[in-house]
């Protein structure tokens, strides 16, 4: 993989910013339109005027107000934030490993969340506590995702090789998958169905409390990531170059992993594993914005991740309505051909 120094530096010029500005406006408008569609279209359709009226008077107590405020808006916001977080996580890991096929779940984050959820959903841990079972599922996924993250960060502190760390992450994923497979084989049939549905990923069922956590915690992490744009650009040119620019390499590597794993872990714990977004969106953003400058790519992948996740969530809900399709299946079917086509037309440089 090569680094285009001219692309990274050229985006800083006024001419270099013209295309990104136009792309931000275009994709921002598309994302906003999709958010409105996701709020307005469903088993019960609402016009933009209905949505506006509900936003102005949220305490009206009508069925329309309850559906929009308690179901549609949280889900639409969750799709936007989920896509943005997964995309930024994928970008950070691709920069860290200098590998175009690395995604946020390659380090076993998804597998860690899955194995803990399998303990809750496939065993008798929820006996007598069925009322808080959804909360337990989210908490278990959170513990699993961040437990694996802490192990990976601890290993990263001791080893310098990105390839070694990547292999350890893959082995962690295989170990978690082995435990999950054993629990699935021993579980009762009615429990397996619910677990399989969780594994497919979905932005449905989000509550405002969860949205608040994503906005506050995720927003702070995104701000930190953006402040790391210049060190990330230096890191693209090699660790030796970054060190010559005053970057503490060991501390910076740990920080990249913490931010990437935290963003992916938050979404996985609340929405389940959502495939493709973290892997493919960074490639799409590089091709659209035609730069390797992370000052442009970080907000760019946020926007495109939100767009892709919102579109896929809309398709999953509406394609065979009232049956909701698996979100991860839609993201794969929708995104893989696009990315393959884009990569064949133009060589991607990280």
Spell out the helices and strands N to C: HHHHHHHHHHHHHHH
Count of DSSP-assigned helices? 15
**Could you estimate the helical fraction of the residues in percent?**
over 70%
The major β-sheet equals: none
CATH class (first level) name: Mainly Alpha
CATH T-level topology = ABC transporter involved in vitamin B12 uptake, BtuC
CATH architecture grouping: Orthogonal Bundle
Output the radius of gyration. Answer: 21 Å
Number of strands: 0
Distance between the termini: 7 Å
Shape: globular
Global mean pLDDT:
83
Q: Spell out the CATH superfamily.
A: ABC transporter involved in vitamin B12 uptake, BtuC
Structural domains: how many: 1
User: Beta fraction of the residues?
Assistant: under 5%
Q: In a few lines, what is going on in this structure?
A:
Helix content is 76%, strand content 0%. It has 350 residues and is an all-alpha fold.
Word description of this protein:
The protein is mainly alpha-helical and 350 residues long. The chain has helices at residues 5-10, 14-40, 48-56, 63-97, 109-122, 133-158, 162-186, 189-199, 208-227, 229-236, 239-244, 249-271, 277-289, 294-318, 327-345. The longest helix is centred in the first third of the chain and has 35 residues, at 63-97. Residues 1-15 and 127-132 have low confidence and may be disordered.
SSE map:
Blueprint: H1 5-10, H2 14-40, H3 48-56, H4 63-97, H5 109-122, H6 133-158, H7 162-186, H8 189-199, H9 208-227, H10 229-236, H11 239-244, H12 249-271, H13 277-289, H14 294-318, H15 327-345
Helix pairs in contact: 2-4, 2-14, 3-4, 4-9, 4-12, 4-13, 4-14, 5-6, 5-7, 5-8, 6-7, 6-12, 9-12, 13-14, 13-15, 14-15
């Amino acid at each position: 993989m090569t680094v285009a120094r001219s692309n990274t530096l050229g985006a800083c010029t006024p001419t270099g910013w013209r295309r990104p500005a136009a792309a931000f406006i275009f994709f921002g408008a598309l994302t906003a339109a999709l958010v409105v569609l996701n709020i307005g279209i469903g088993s019960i359709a609402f016009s933009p005027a209905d949505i506006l009226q509900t936003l102005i008077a949220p305490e009206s107590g009508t069925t329309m107000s309850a559906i929009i405020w308690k179901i549609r808006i949280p889900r639409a916001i969750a799709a936007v934030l989920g896509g943005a977080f997964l995309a930024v996580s994928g970008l950070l890991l691709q920069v860290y490993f200098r590998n175009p096929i690395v995604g946020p779940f390659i380090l076993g984050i998804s597998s860690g969340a899955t194995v803990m959820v399998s303990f809750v959903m496939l065993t008798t841990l929820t006996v007598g506590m069925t009322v808080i079972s959804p909360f337990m599922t989210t908490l278990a996924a959170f513990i699993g995702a961040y437990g694996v993250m802490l192990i990976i960060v601890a290993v990263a502190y001791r080893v310098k090789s990105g390839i070694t760390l990547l292999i350890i992450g893959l082995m962690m994923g295989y170990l978690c998958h082995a435990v999950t497979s054993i629990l699935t084989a021993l579980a009762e049939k009615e429990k397996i169905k619910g677990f399989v549905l969780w594994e497919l990923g979905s932005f449905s069922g989000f509550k405002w409390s969860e949205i608040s956590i994503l906005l506050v915690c995720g927003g702070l992490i995104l701000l930190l990531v953006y402040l790391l744009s210049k060190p990330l650009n230096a890191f693209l040119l090699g660790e030796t170059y970054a060190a010559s620019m005053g970057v503490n390499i060991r501390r910076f590597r740990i920080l990249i992993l913490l931010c990437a794993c935290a963003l992916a872990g938050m979404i996985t714990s609340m929405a389940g594993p959502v495939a493709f977004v973290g892997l493919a969106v960074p490639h799409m953003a590089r091709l659209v914005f035609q730069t390797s400058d992370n000052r442009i790519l970080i907000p760019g992948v946020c926007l495109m991740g939100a767009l892709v996740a919102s579109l896929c969530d809309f398709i999953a809900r509406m394609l065979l309505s009232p049956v909701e399709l698996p979100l991860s299946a839609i993201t794969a079917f929708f995104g893989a051909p696009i990315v393959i086509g884009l990569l064949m037309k133009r060589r991607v440089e990280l």
